[in-house]
Amino acid sequence: MPATVVVGTQWGDEGKGKLTDLLAREMDVVVRYQGGHNAGHRIVVEGEAFALQLIPSGILYPSVTPVIGNGVVVDPSVLLEEIDTLEAKGVDTSALMVSGNAHLIMPYHRELDRVTERYLGKSALGTTKRGIGPAYADKATRVGLRVQDLLDEKIFRQKLDVVLKEKNALLAKVYNRLPFNAEEITEFYIGQLAPRVAPMIGDTVGFLHEAMAQGKNLLLEGAQATFLDLDHGTYPFVTSSNPVAGGACTGSGLGPRDLGRIVGIAKAYVTRVGAGPFPTEVFGELQDLLVERGHEFGTNTGRMRRCGWFDAVMARQAVRLNSLTEVALTKLDILDTFETVKVCVGYEADGVRYDYPPYHQSVLHKVTPIYKDLPGWKMDLSEITSFDDMPEKAREYVAFLENQIGVPVRLVGVGPGREQFVTFPSA
Fold first, then answer.
1. Per the residue annotation, which of 13, 28, 229, 258 is the catalytic one?
2. Which one from 21, 28, 37, 41 is the annotated catalytic residue?
3. pTM as predicted
4. How sure is the predictor about 290, in pLDDT bands with cuts at 50, 70 and 90?
5. Less Cβ around it within 10 Å: N or C end of the chain?
6. 311 an active-site residue?
């Protein structure tokens, strides 16, 4: 049975957690394949909200084995806090598996994240300052510590001693910060964290391939989104990993032929957090209205999200980059009160029209969106559960988006709850 991939098509916060939770009821294994605890997935079940950071959304189903793949960077203290929070709410986390090849976020990663952002000043990237980027940087330069190192104190100490020589010198000489103590870090990670994390650590690659061979249903869950991808996003205002569907292979250990259904998640409008280009961004009262109606604040950070109209140019590129088989549209209900709803169908810059994002950042920063105005439906969608009950104008809006991006829209979210969605018929 080919695996299913869930990937964001915009700048994150599209509602991947809710969709993953929805699809997980049909799955045996749910895998988080990249990112760290800088990405929050919010799921509402019977009125109770669960804010997940590292743990895959499938954790809420007892029949699902949740897996943190090798492509994730793990802060073990955050992982344990999240486990404790879920257990306190009655969620069983005992089946959770963590790849031994996943990399650890260390205290110096968090400190470097903070001081470098401050050092950049007006050029700051708007990171969450949780050590994600520095941890991935150490992975790339081959000085990172991995989750499996928690199982061998000697190896842990050897690797830590090597890396602290560089990190402490950098922190002291460039940023005027105090050095980190290897003994204190070792005592915390090996003495306090390792005993609790050790039972979860395993060969997740072998486990996933065995599950595939047994015909089990696998769901691969990405964090962040396509245009935060390190290679394909709006660089440098991106994350430090590859959220695109291709990253599901490198971050889990499955091969390309193991992937089948690839579901892109898109909001009915667009948001992004932090700095970076945003062609369809709106301001003033319209932004305030979208923020208020959509509760557009980061699940983990609390930062207000920038808002804008749906961008079909971005969506077309996301279809190409991810080989999307379908799209799930979320938060359609947020547009319920609008008389007119705009959709960006192209960009214009220096007399040239672009149906896909221009590759050069200087062009992208100055494009003007070309809009198509569509009539609003002026009706509360939050109680609707069937396609037949959807107002005609809302159906037309979804059909227009589908026509613009070139793949079918199969699910439409009409509220934050687990059951607040409408299935759209196949064309």
1. 13
2. 41
3. 0.92
4. very high
5. C
6. no
